[in-house]
UniProtKB/TrEMBL annotation:
Belongs to the YkuD family. This is Murein L,D-transpeptidase YafK. It comes from the Bacteria. The keyword Transferase applies. The keyword Cell wall biogenesis/degradation applies. Pathway: Cell wall biogenesis; peptidoglycan biosynthesis. Gene3D superfamilies: L,D-transpeptidase catalytic domain-like (2.40.440.10). GO terms for molecular function: carboxypeptidase activity; transferase activity. Keywords: Cell shape, Cell wall biogenesis/degradation, Peptidoglycan synthesis, Transferase. It comes from Mesorhizobium sangaii. One of its GO terms (biological process) is peptidoglycan biosynthetic process.
Amino acid sequence: MIATAPALAGEKVNLVRVDKSDRRLELIGDGKILRSYSIALGGDPLGHKHEEGDQRTPEGRYVLDWRNPNSIAHKSIHISYPNAGDLAAAKTRSVDAGGMIMIHGQPNGFGWWGWLLQLVDWTDGCIAVTDSDMDEIWAMVADGTPIEIER
């Protein structure tokens, strides 16, 4: 089942910004940082995602387009990768662009390890946060919110 999440009263998030080099995810509203979270990335985080299995987190502007409350990780929100440009670039290299890139919490049953897992880049290209951070992001970020992922 796909659920929707309204922003918390008085704090409308109109942009999610990710700085891969600083391992930070920020919720932006009216031009100011409302919340900031430490993140873990894919196992090979440098550079833009090019193909399935490269363990890179995409870079660029996307949309948070749907969510999964029954994810294999504690809740997940989908990032609209690959876009038309990503698909075209993958086609020229004759590779699969990949997909299913999410912001998510810890693997189910391992939330208590969140503090430890966040010390390393362990995902397959997703953006991981602790379960409590994911609960807050889930409540504050509506479907359709843009996300900018920067080096």
